[in-house]
Amino acid sequence: MLNTQNVVLKMTAGRKDQFPRDGKVQIALSGRSNVGKSSLINTVLGRKSFARTSAQPGKTITINFYEVDKKLYLVDLPGYGYARRSADSRRVWASLTNDYLEAGTMQMIFQLIDLKVGPTEDDYMMIEWLNANKVPYVVVATKSDKLNVTTRKANYEALVNHPLFNPPYTDAPVPVILFSSQTGVGRNDLLTILSETLK
User: What is the pLDDT of residues 83-92, one digit of tens each?
Assistant: First the structure.
């Protein structure tokens, strides 16, 4: 089991030469701006404000490497799809994110999708890249507490049955995990996946 109390922000990287290459397992978090990546990190680690959340989506263009129990990194990729970001900022984002994805150091991606909003065009692009490159990933349906029971069930089933999450290169569909940073739903599932990845 992971000791989630033993966590440090190992590196805030703005260039590919700063990425850790020490052989530890790396689980990257991908998703659009304001989808709740920082809140997920805080919830999974049992911290209130370890990963900084921002009221201004798209503000950060760095990759944060959180070392957990000296065994793995939770890698917080900068959010995509922020329309008000300048052209220069979008180029920096694309370059840095591509450098990380192409480095080949990650074992898995947690692909976050706002359950209320559903997959966006940028989400589709990311998922198609994951499928094309056969990168293992889990879909995390965030902000599940924001919907009533009926809508939550319908939106969740729509994700589970989405053809993109049943890629031909795997025998089983991609797992879709309901998550809420407010209620803690899904936290244990994600911790189990992290522990299993270490094996």
Answer: 555 666 667 6
What ranges do the domains of the chain cover?
7-198
Of 114, 113, 112, 100, nearest to 146 (Cα)? 114
Q: Single out the residue of 55, 52, 26 nearest to residue 39, CA to CA.
A: 52
- Identify the CATH homologous superfamily for domain 7-198: P-loop containing nucleotide triphosphate hydrolases (3.40.50.300)
Give the pair of three-digit tokens for residue 116.
Answer: 């209320």
Q: Among residues 98, 48, 41, which one has the least CA distance to residue 64?
A: 41
Cα–Cα distance for residue pair 77/55, rounded to 1 Å = 17
The CA-CA-CA angle for residues 46, 185, 31, to 5°, reads: 80
Give per-residue pLDDT as tens, 104-134: 899 999 999 999 999 999 899 999 999 999 9
Global pTM? 0.90
Report helix, strand or coil for 149. Answer: helix
Rounded to whole angstroms, the Cα distance separating 125 from 58 reads 18
DSSP secondary structure string for all residues of 25-83: EEEEEE-BTTSSHHHHHHHHHT-SSSSPP-SSTT---SEEEEEETTTEEEEEPPPB--T
